[in-house]
Write a structure and sequence with these properties.
The protein has a domain of 131 residues: FAD/NAD(P)-binding domain, CATH 3.50.50.60. Helix content is 25%, strand content 29%. β10 and β11 form a beta hairpin. α3 packs across α4. The termini are far apart. Keywords: FAD, Flavoprotein.
């Protein structure tokens, strides 16, 4: 089967892409390395906030579902900067991770033109006007277009002290698609984020 669009990655971006694509295409495939993590939120599951809530509203206007998901799964909401001018008011939701994920699954699985597959893509190739994806079983997936929503999972590293681990998120795999990108002349760069170190003090020994 030749798909109109194949989306790699099933986080926020992958889910929004698959839902939007399903409205204009009749064959969409969503590939994720772990179905258990489909639509999973971070350990601090908040949606919106200063500098972010307007993005959720813009996404909703464009046909996105994050606003709908947040309304369904929220357990607390707050208007930030409420005592200041209306131009800087900002809505933030705290949402239930399980409700959020379950609602995503419900929406995705009732879409008959979205095919969801647990798999890992190892290579991306171009052939004429088609995109060829090769998975970990050396099976071929053919699409007219691909949308890459891999987040922090492409050739990524985590540094903890002096130790360096090749993982995308703690205990999650990283995938080396960088070589494939270079072969099809896609620009590659990396971003860095930092989490403040946790200090472990043995008070009994210290005092």
């Amino acid at each position: 089967m030749i798909f109109n669009i194949i989306i790699i990655g099933a986080g926020h971006a992958g889910i929004e892409s698959s839902i939007s694509s399903s409205k204009i295409c009749n064959k969409v495939k969503l590939i994720t390395s772990n179905l258990e993590n489909l639509g999973v939120l971070s350990c601090n599951p908040s949606i919106g906030g200063i500098g972010k809530s307007h993005l959720i509203k813009e996404l909703e206007i464009l046909g996105g579902i994050m606003g709908e998901l947040s309304d369904y799964s929220r357990i607390h909401s707050k208007i930030l900067n409420y005592k200041k001018g209306e131009s800087i008011h900002s809505l933030r939701y705290q949402v239930d991770r399980i409700l959020y994920k379950n609602y995503i699954l419900k929406i995705l699985f009732i879409k008959k033109n979205i095919f969801i597959e647990q798999n890992e893509i190892k290579k991306i190739l171009r052939f004429k006007k088609k995109i060829i994806l090769i998975d970990k079983f050396n099976c071929i997936h053919i699409s007219k277009n691909i949308i890459l929503c891999a987040g922090t999972f492409i050739n990524s590293k985590i540094c903890i002290g002096k130790n360096v681990f090749k993982i995308g998120r703690y205990n999650d795999k990283t995938f080396n698609l960088s070589k494939s990108f270079k072969k099809i002349n896609l620009y590659i760069n990396s971003l860095k984020t930092g989490t403040p170190p946790r200090i472990d003090i043995n008070y009994l020994k210290k005092f």
